[in-house]
Amino acid sequence: MIKDLYDLGDAPELGAVPKRMYASVIRRERYGEPVDAFRTEVVDVPPVRPGQVLVKVMAAGVNYNNVWAALGSPLDVITARQKQGATEDFHIGGSDLSGVVWAVGENVRGVKPGDEVVVLAARWDESAEDVRLGAEPVTSASQRVWGYEENYGSFAQFAVVDDYMCHPKPARLSWAASACYMATAATAYRQLFGWQPHTVRPGDPVLVWGGAGGLGSIAIQLVRHVGGIPVAVVSSQERGEFCVGLGAEGWIDRRDFDHWGRLPDASDEAAMAKWLSGARAFGRRFWEVLGERRAPRIVLEHSGADTIPTSLYLCDNAGMVVICGGTTGYNGDVDLRFLWMRQKRLQGSHVASLREAREVTRLIDQGAVDPCLSRTFGFEEIGLAHQLLHENRHPAGNMAVLVNASE
Ligand SMILES: NC(=O)c1ccc[n+]([C@@H]2O[C@H](COP(=O)([O-])OP(=O)(O)OC[C@H]3O[C@@H](n4cnc5c(N)ncnc54)[C@H](OP(=O)(O)O)[C@@H]3O)[C@@H](O)[C@H]2O)c1
After folding, report:
1. For ligand 1, is residue 181 a contact (CB within 6 Å)?
2. How much is the pLDDT for 401?
3. Which of 190, 193, 183, 192 lies closest to 213, judged by CA?
4. CA 97 from centre of chain
5. Alpha carbon separation from 402 to 8, 56, 86, 180, 382 (Å, rounded)
6. What share of the chain has pLDDT > 70, as a percent?
7. pLDDT for residue 7
8. CA gap 222, 162 in Å, rounded
9. What pLDDT, on the 0 to 100 scale, is given for residue 30?
10. Which residue has the CA at smallest separation from atom 29 of ligand 1?
11. Is the CB of 213 under 6 A from ligand 1?
12. Which residues form a coiled coil (predicted)?
């Protein structure tokens, strides 16, 4: 006889699914500051459809996307889903988890009840026309981010994912450390190794914005692992030292410069000259940290509007700026002269393929890359964790939340 609802940390026997569960829920009327947007509620456990897996969530990762979900901007995720036919008027976020496969739908392959897994949040329709015509699934028009664009993410006792999204949990890591890394690590891995011929080679200088952040802390280690030379950008000495500890050659304090933001109009020569002198000073600092006068062959971007003009200016001839986010805004100003005359590449990159997720997980499992778990929060602190991220007051690395696990 199973109960309708179990406390966090408690559950019926493997395979038995209760009707209801605790979840940290965002509702439209609470859109705003993350600390107030999340609230624990009891909701129905979602159905498990063919090809899907119900995971008992042990721990969840904290990512920037649920800062956006909490704010209701730039995407009102609940309304967007309802326009696609969803009936729920709430959002359960969380795009990273570690947990136990609890039940499986029809035709599930590759995982079975009892398996300990982590999840890559990229979900797509395997029968979509573009996939059938040969597109890499993560680039499919059907691709959505689970736990952000799609509901029933990891901030709940149970989550529903597609079978191919599951990867073996790194055995050496705790539930929290396993839950904290995938979204940032797999994304950084694709940025650095997914865009031939611009993959990191031994000796390549690489500029990493937000070196102490989720993406940055993993990127530094990945660049070093293959013999590249990572240089971090940060906003405090403490964060800079953290990056050096991970393998950065050194760090640049972005507070020493003030040329950030959108480019002036190209015809305003005085304003352009002022901007250029700021960008050049930043470039000289890069050389100082690197110890030689070479430009970064690859720039790992996610900060967006404030930094992209500098990224494109600084990037080496025939190098690549690879961008996966726009934390400071979405207007990416490009002085096209630098782009074409110096034959640079500006590449968008989003989440990762299954292969990339598996490869970065192997590196983490082998101990070659640390997931950089910074702080572990309790279930009632999900809003707080996102608020710290929103205000850039979070500790260096990746954060996690305990769901059914106690440590
Ligand atoms: N497309 C994808 O698949 C994907 C996946 C993961 C993340 N993302 C996006 O990537 C972004 C970063 O994610 P994350 O998890 O690494 O976040 P994070 O842990 O907050 O790290 C971002 C870092 O950016 C730096 N930063 C903040 N404001 C800045 C500014 N004005 N100029 C330069 N740097 C600034 C901060 O470092 P300092 O203050 O120390 O400089 C911060 O540590 C987010 O927008 C997220 O949505 C996208």
Report:
1. no
2. 98
3. 183
4. 13
5. 10, 12, 28, 11, 9
6. 100
7. 97
8. 28
9. 97
10. 303
11. yes
12. none
Spatial CB neighbours of 240, under 8 Å, sequence gap ≥ 6: 211, 212, 232, 234, 248, 250, 251, 253
Compute the distance from residue 175 Cα to the ligand 1 centre, in Å: 24
pLDDT digits (tens, 9 = 90+) for 295-345: 999 999 999 999 999 999 999 999 999 999 999 999 999 999 999 999 999
Residues in the chain: 407
Place 83 in a pLDDT band, splitting at 50, 70 and 90. very high
pLDDT in tens, 253-277: 999 999 999 999 999 999 999 999 9
User: Ligand 1 centroid to 328 CA: how many Å?
Assistant: 9
Measured CA to CA in angstroms, residue 384 lies from 66, 155, 379, 399 at distances of 12, 13, 10, 11
Phi, psi (deg, nearest 5) at residue 34: -55, -35
Write a three-state SS string for the chain. CCCCCCCCCCCCCCCCCCCEEEEEEEEHHHCCCHHHHEEEEEEECCCCCCCEEEEEEEEEEECCHHHHHHHCCCCCHHHHHHHCCCCCCEEECCCCEEEEEEEECCCCCCCCCCCEEEECCEECCCCCHHHHCCCCHHHCCCCEEECCCECCCCCECEEEEEHHHEEECCCCCCHHHHHCCHHHHHHHHHHHHCCCCCCCCCCCEEEECCCCCHHHHHHHHHHHHCCCEEEEEECCHHHHHHHHHHCCCEEEEHHHCCCCCCCCCCCCHHHHHHHHHHHHHHHHHHHHHHCCCCCCCEEEECCHHHCHHHHHHHCCCCCEEEECCCCCCCCCCCCHHHHHHCCCEEEECCCCCHHHHHHHHHHHHCCCCCCCEEEEECHHHHHHHHHHHHCCCCCCCEEEEECCCCC
How far away, in angstroms, is 372 Cα from ligand 1 center?
15
Rounded CA separation 187/158 (Å): 24
pTM beyond cutoff 0.90: yes
